[in-house]
Amino acid sequence: MSRQLRRSMAGTGVGAPARRSVPRPMLRTELGRHGRGITQFLSEVRSELRKVVWPTRREAMHLTLLVIGMSVAVGVLLGLIDYAFSTLFQALVR
């Protein structure tokens, strides 16, 4: 009987009797070992960091200035919106 058919007939009392779940063996037994895991993790981190393409000093400076500029622009925009709403609210309250 297919799995979908068994599922659709599960509440009807028809079909195969319910089975108990069989305990499965742990698939990744190396996770239980201690000691080697930290060393392996650090060596893999080191190898991944060697693959990173780091920006040049000039690129990093330009990107930093871009982030600062965008932050200032968004701050000014939000300040103007806040000022407009507070002025509108004060006009409505009076």
What structural class do helix, strand and pairing data support?
mainly alpha
- Proportion in β-strands: under 5%
Coarse morphology: flat
- The low-pLDDT segments are none
Secondary structure elements and pairings:
Layout: H1 3-8, H2 36-51, H3 57-93
Quick rundown:
The protein has helices at 3-8, 36-51, 57-93. It is mostly helical and 94 residues long. The protein has a domain at 56-94.
Structural summary, described in words:
The chain has helices at residues 3-8, 36-51, 57-93. The chain contains three helices and no strands.
Keywords:
single chain, 94 residues, mainly alpha, 63% helix, flat
